[in-house]
C-alpha cells in the first residue's frame, strides 16, 4: 500500500497546488497579452526592479492575512512570500516558453524582463488562492478581524495592485483620461468614491463590514472610504508611471484624468480585497 503523506507535508503540497491554480486563474489573461510582453522587454531595469520590490511588499501583506500556512512568525510570512514569488516566476517562465514568447534565441535581458513582469500577477494570485481556495486557519481569521485601520489599508493596497495591474498596461485608461472632460472626470471620481463605500459597508455582500459601534456613518465614510480611495488613486498613479503612460512631460490635467480613470479599477480592487481577505 502507498503510505499516506504526513499531514504537514500534505498541507504544504496542497498549498503549493492551490497557489499554482490561483496564479493561473489571475495571471493567465495577462500572460497571453502582447502589451505585457512588450512592457517586459522595454521597461528600464531599475523600474522593473522597483515594481518587483513593490510586488514583494504586497505579497508580504497578503501572506500575513491569507497565506499558505498558519504563519506564527515574521520569518514564516517572508518564507511564504518567497514561495509565492517563486511560483510566479516558475509558472510565468514555463508558460511563456510554451507560448513561444521567450526562447534561447532572445537576449537574456528580454527573457528576464518578460518573465519577471508576467510573474507579478501570477504570484499575487498564488498568494490569494492559497488562503481563499483552502481552509482558513483560526489564526488567519483572527488576524483579519484584528487588522485595524492600518491593516485594512494594507489589505486594500494589495487589492488595488491586483486589479490595477490587469488594466494599467493597456492603452485604454490613457485614452479614457484624454477623452474625458473635467466634469466627466469629477463624475467618475465621485462614482469611485460611492463604489468604495457601498461595496464594503452598504450593499450587504458576504464579508461586508458593519459600521463600528460608537462611530457615525459619516465618520466611517471619511475615515475609511475616502482614505481607501486616496490610496487607490496613488496606486493608479504609480502603475501609470511604471508603464510609461505618464511622465514629467505629461500635463497636470491629463495626469489627473488618467489617474481617475484607472482609479475606478483600483478602488474596486481595494474594496473587493476588504471583503475577500
UniProtKB/TrEMBL annotation:
Q: Which UniProt keywords apply?
A: Membrane, Transmembrane, Transmembrane helix
Which is an annotated Pfam family here? DUF2391
**Can you tell me where the transmembrane regions are?**
12-34, 46-65, 77-99, 147-165, 185-205, 217-243, 255-276
Q: Does the keyword Acetylation apply?
A: no
Q: What name is this protein filed under? A: Putative transmembrane protein
Organism of derivation? Deinococcus gobiensis (strain DSM 21396 / JCM 16679 / CGMCC 1.7299 / I-0)
Taxonomically, what lineage is the organism? Bacteria, Thermotogati, Deinococcota, Deinococci, Deinococcales
Amino acid at each position: 500500500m502507498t503510505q499516506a503523506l504526513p499531514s504537514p507535508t500534505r498541507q504544504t503540497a496542497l498549498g503549493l497546488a492551490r497557489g499554482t491554480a490561483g496564479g493561473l486563474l489571475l495571471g493567465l489573461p495577462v500572460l497571453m497579452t502582447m502589451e505585457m510582453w512588450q512592457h517586459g522587454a522595454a521597461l528600464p531595469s531599475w523600474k522593473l526592479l522597483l515594481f518587483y520590490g513593490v510586488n514583494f511588499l504586497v505579497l508580504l501583506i497578503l501572506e500575513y492575512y491569507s497565506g499558505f500556512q498558519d504563519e506564527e512568525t515574521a520569518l514564516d510570512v517572508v518564507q511564504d512570500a518567497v514561495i509565492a514569488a517563486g511560483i510566479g516566476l516558475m509558472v510565468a517562465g514555463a508558460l511563456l516558453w510554451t507560448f513561444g514568447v521567450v526562447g534561447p534565441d532572445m537576449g537574456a535581458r528580454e527573457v528576464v524582463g518578460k518573465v519577471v513582469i508576467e510573474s507579478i500577477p501570477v504570484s499575487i494570485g498564488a498568494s490569494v488562492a492559497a488562503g481563499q481556495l483552502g481552509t482558513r486557519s483560526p489564526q488567519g481569521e483572527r488576524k483579519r478581524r484584528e487588522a485595524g485601520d492600518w491593516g485594512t489599508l494594507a489589505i486594500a493596497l494589495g487589492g488595488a495592485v491586483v486589479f490595477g495591474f490587469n488594466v494599467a498596461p493597456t492603452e485604454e485608461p490613457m485614452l479614457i483620461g484624454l477623452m474625458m472632460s473635467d466634469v466627466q472626470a469629477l463624475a467618475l471620481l465621485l462614482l469611485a468614491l460611492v463604489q468604495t463605500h457601498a461595496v464594503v459597508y452598504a450593499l450587504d455582500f458576504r464579508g461586508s463590514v458593519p459600521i463600528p459601534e460608537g462611530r457615525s456613518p459619516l465618520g466611517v465614510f471619511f475615515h475609511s472610504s475616502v482614505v481607501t480611495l486616496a490610496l487607490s488613486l496613488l496606486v493608479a498613479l504609480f502603475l501609470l508611471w511604471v508603464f510609461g503612460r505618464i511622465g514629467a512631460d505629461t500635463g497636470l490635467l491629463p495626469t489627473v484624468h488618467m489617474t481617475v480613470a484607472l482609479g475606478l479599477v483600483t478602488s474596486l480592487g481595494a474594496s473587493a480585497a476588504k471583503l475577500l481577505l
